[in-house]
Specification:
There is one protein chain. The protein contains 4 helices and 2 strands. By secondary structure, the protein is an all-alpha fold. It has one domain. It has a two-stranded antiparallel sheet.
Length: about 150
């Protein structure tokens, strides 16, 4: 399989899984459970696996760039891949702190202000990753079509 095809496959898997989860599973879960907090108890657990899955795919993507030429385009691709991995590692750290702010026994958030600030930062970082992957995929699809 050619490198661009491999990159399209792994990033499309991530993009599709994340988009489906964020766009359908979470909103439907909140609707069924009737509460952001109730759904958050589920997403807290699922997010651990989603973060591991994401990091593995992003590392595979970065590894696929190892033979990129040293042109400015190749360097930009490597910087973007490294940034995405860095953001994903940051999500692990934020998720750890978010978990510390939850009392699972009573299903309560211990410090609402801190939790919601960190959660908002978490969502912004996820959005940056999603937009970056979307742009990479667009670029890959465009170059493959030519």
């Amino acid at each position: 399989m050619e490198n661009n095809q491999f990159r399209i496959v792994i990033l499309s898997i991530w993009w599709g899984a994340f988009t489906f989860y964020a766009g359908f599973v979470v909103p439907l879960g909140m609707k069924v459970l009737g509460s952001h907090t109730q759904m958050g108890m589920i997403t807290q657990e699922v997010t651990v696996y989603l973060n591991i899955f994401s990091l593995i795919l992003f590392l595979l993507y970065a590894f696929s760039l190892r033979n990129e030429n040293s042109s400015s385009t190749g360097l930009v691709k490597q910087i973007v891949a490294t940034s995405i991995i860095g953001f994903q590692v940051l999500l692990f750290l934020i998720h750890f702190y978010l978990t510390e702010l939850i009392d699972f026994r009573y299903q309560k958030i211990l410090s609402l202000d801190t939790f919601y600030l960190l959660h908002r930062i978490y969502l912004i970082i996820e959005t940056i990753i999603w937009v970056s992957i979307s742009a990479i995929l667009f670029s890959l699809f465009k170059s493959t079509a030519n």
